[in-house]
Design a protein that fits this description.
With 247 residues, the chain is mostly helical. It is built from nine helices and no strands.
Length: 247
């Protein structure tokens, strides 16, 4: 999948997420006895959130872009491609180590980098011990890179509800300031704007944080499972060097 297609999918997902998230907030109040109240529109809720609400919406777009990117990159076909494992198995059985190294260098996946690091140590002074250390270092480096990518989504999951709380505080400050300016004679319509901003930003922060936290846990479990599978595959491919060294 090229970069253009990836960004198109990201933009589409961002739009869908923003519309669904904010539309879920816009409900239709029950009609009063006197008149049918107006339906709360999506854009009125966006405007009610103020600057802080806009920041939360921007964070939601960034979160969706990162989540889509993670779905495209953190998967078995990208980290543990089956064709590469089969190719390496054939080369190693036939002792074509140079071809196996070239296949790993051309692939660039987690499996390719780890196995390639071990194959580069063939003929070293300490034999399989050098290969094992090189593979362990490469594995730790790649796993750390995968987990570091999750930190950005985790940060958004933490910041979004905090921004919502900040909007709640500023909205209530505005409402109480109105009461002070009117010496306690403020009308409900004068207080509505501050309270409306407080409630909208709180809900927006939670709407962004809850699914984002779920995605963080989902990707963390997926990485753990793929790493365990990668370790088993590397052990299966490279165990022949341990046997030849001990012999």
């Amino acid at each position: 999948m090229n970069k253009t297609t990836r960004w198109l999918l990201t933009g589409l997902s961002v739009g869908v997420f923003a519309v669904l998230a904010l539309q879920a907030l816009a409900g239709e109040p029950a009609p009063t006895q006197m008149e049918q109240t107006k339906r709360i529109s999506l854009w009125s809720m966006i405007e009610a959130g103020g600057i802080i609400g806009h920041l939360i919406i921007l964070l939601s777009m960034v979160a969706v872009a990162l989540i889509v990117e993670h779905f495209l990159t953190i998967r078995r076909e990208r980290l543990l491609p089956s064709p590469l494992a089969q190719t390496l198995e054939q080369h190693l059985v036939a002792q074509r180590y140079q071809e196996a190294q070239e296949a790993c260098a051309a692939d660039g996946s987690l499996l390719g980098k780890v196995v390639g690091a071990g194959l580069n140590q063939i003929g070293g002074m300490f034999g399989f011990f050098d290969m094992q250390n090189a593979m362990q270092e490469a594995s730790e480096r790649e796993i750390s890179r995968l987990y570091r990518k999750l930190e950005y989504i985790s940060l958004i999951a933490v910041i979004a509800p905090m921004l919502g709380l900040l909007g709640t505080v500023t909205g209530m400050i505005g409402a109480f300031n109105t009461i002070a300016l009117t010496e306690g004679a403020a009308k409900p319509s004068q207080l509505a704007q501050g309270i409306w901003e407080a409630l909208v930003t709180t809900v927006e922060g939670l709407v962004v944080a809850i699914p984002t936290m779920f995605c963080v846990a989902f990707f963390r479990n997926r990485i753990d499972g793929l790493v365990a599978e990668a370790e088993a595959t590397v052990e299966r491919l490279m165990s022949r060097f341990r046997k030849s060294t001990s012999a």
